[in-house]
Amino acid sequence: MEIPTFLARVEDYHKAGWRLALINATTLLPGEGMEQGAFDIVWAFARGAEFEYIRERVMPGDEVPSVSKSFGAAFLYENEIRELFGINVTGLGLDLGGQLYKTATRIPFSPSAVRARLEALGRAEPAVKHDPAAKNA
Amino acid sequence: MKRTVIPMGPQHPVLPEPLVLDLILEDERVIDAIPTIGYVHRGLEMMVERVEYTEMGFVVERICGICSFMHGMGYCVSLESIMNVEVPERARWLRLIWAEISRIQSHLLWLGLGADAFGFENLFMHCWRMREEILDIFEKTTGGRIIHSVNRIGGVKRDISDSELAAILVKLQDLGTAFRETARIFGNDPSIAHRLGGVGVLSADDARAVDAVGPMARASGIATDTRLNGAHFYDHVEFEPLVETAGDCLARVVVRMREIDQSIDLVRQAIEKMPKGEGQALETKVRGVPDGEVFTRLEQPRGEVLYYVKANGTKNLERFRARTPTFANIPAMIKLVKGCDLADVPNIILTIDPCISCTER
Amino acid sequence: MANPFRMPMVPRALRNLVSRPATRRYPSEIRPRFDGARGTIEFDVDTCVFCMLCARRCPAAAITVSREDRYFAIEQLTCIACGVCVEVCNKDSLSMSVNSRPVHTHAEVGPDGRRPGHEEWTKPLPVAPVVTPVATPTVGTPPAQGAQAG
């Protein structure tokens, strides 16, 4: 992902009075083009009834910048995606040092961990079929 | 000056759910607070791998006991949106009625806890006694006091007859009248004014900077309410977001008290406007598997809840994420705790209406 | 600054003092449950045909059904009282009682791995009625032994 363009877009949202509503990561299982799996990260912004989001596909290990300079409240979301997904978030506003949740598995949503669990349940085909534009309800 | 560190939590008499704040104090003033959560993290979002989409609703409504109805409703609404299911009209009205009654019960619970936070146990018991009326309504109509299990993808499972609705409205209006006495106590009691007035002031600019939602934002003068988006039949009823400008803990108490009256009025409007008669369809049969993704926003008692559901054409969802309002308000809490007196810390923690179970899922 | 001599809780407190308590003296006074309250799942083995729909639809996987062995088991402590099994059963074998009865008599897992709250039923196959043959008169007499054939 293009870090400076991304941060500029986020700052534009902040200047226009949008509120950060969500930073969410989805694990994508290893498949063609992504041998280690990947993550789909969504930054969702809300302003009254309006709702928009930025979606980026990120490979494991790729640097994902923190948006704390624009939205100070982002630290909780970013600590969570770092801790549960293993996403390399840099420049965290408040770093909770991996102590946010106390999970039995260290990075429960990493592509390999998800794949292992799905194989144990008998369902391990790569799950990504298409990328529809998300609807707003 | 010497600094002391006082760890507060995870068990503490004023906390409804476990939360740790390491308070760094100089004398009695809090300089910094380091939060730690994770004591009730149950990994409910991971359950989508094991539980099929038809059954996930039951898991989602058990994320939290206080906000249970809206979680179930939000999940079902998200799946209905992905699968393009048309929900019968009576079911949508019933969901609105149950959601507003759920809001009344949540605010009464919070008012009790808020009073308990500064030691007013008599008022705490008084608020919870009123709350029992609401829980009885839930048990009569849904079968459960806290976990209702009436939401299904495609509608609701149980009906409330028109005569029962009329009886419920009478009960709620009696509750509203009885609540006026409680509101007078909260408004006029000098000890409450002393403990809550001017404490934890969040200005409108600060509220925007920390992305506060719900009564936290409304008490600081920002007129935001997710119900204004008009989804889920809220465009069929009339209401205004209740805004206070003082931004302190007392203003948040006032906002939540006024919301109780507003919810009773919304239930009255819904009962008037909904189609009358027996035998109406309550549920649309849903077949097939979901494929697609959706963002759903609802107004829970604590603020805006955001559900992100991603389905991939199989019986198991790929991702379910519930971003609850407390998750969004925790940065506001941390900001308010810095610089306050030690005795005000419980009041400030409770003023965001923390639902840590919702936050940690 | 509010008037420090106002005590708006006092009338309420005095009224509480002279009125009956808001709490019940449980267990001597038990509030009856409302109709439609969720309680324990009850099973009628006589009507069950072991179609296994309830086991497939149970969200908590509390029901085990075996068609070949004509066996039904429910883990009452795993049951979340959602009522889906009652909804899907075509033979009305399952019902939800309004009350919750005590479902476990011991707190530990039994020696055969049975968990507390485990309840099971087996429905034996109906036994075919035994038909006693009635003696019938023979038609004609068999040929005498040693008679020449042909």
Please give a structural write-up.
The complex is a heterotrimer of chains A (137), B (361) and C (150). With 137 residues, chain A is of the alpha+beta class. Helix content of chain A is 26%, strand content 27%. Chain A has one domain. A 3-stranded antiparallel β-sheet of chain A has the order 1-2-3. In chain A, strand 2 and strand 3 form a beta hairpin. The longest helix of chain A has 13 residues, at 3-15. The radius of gyration of chain A is 16 Å and the shape is globular. In chain B, helix 5 packs antiparallel against helix 9. In chain B, 47% of the residues lie in helices and 14% in strands. With 150 residues, chain C is α+β, with helices and mostly antiparallel strands. Chains in contact: A-B, B-C. Chains A and B meet through strand 1, strand 2, helix 2, helix 3 and strand 6 of A and helix 2, strand 6, strand 7, strand 8 and helix 10 of B. Strand 6 (135-136) of chain A pairs parallel with strand 6 (291-300) of chain B, so a sheet runs across the interface.
Per CATH, which architecture of the domain at 32-98 in chain C? 2-Layer Sandwich
The general outline of chain B is: globular
Oligomer: heterotrimer
Q: Strand count, sense and closure of the main sheet of chain C?
A: 3 strands, antiparallel
Report the radius of gyration of chain C as a whole number of Å.
32 Å
Shape of chain C: elongated
What about the largest sheet of chain B? 3 strands, antiparallel
What letter string, H or E per element, gives the SSE order of chain C?
A: HEHEEHEE
CATH architectural group of chain B: Orthogonal Bundle
User: Count of DSSP E strands of chain C?
Assistant: 5
Count of helix runs of chain C:
3
- Percent strand of chain B: 5-15%
* SSE succession of chain B: EEEHHHHEEHHHHHEEEHHH
Total E-strand runs of chain B: 8
The greatest interface between two protein chains, and residues involved on each side, is:
A-B, 42 and 49 residues
Low-confidence stretches of chain B at least 5 residues in length (pLDDT < 50)?
Answer: none
**Mean model confidence by pLDDT of chain C:** 82
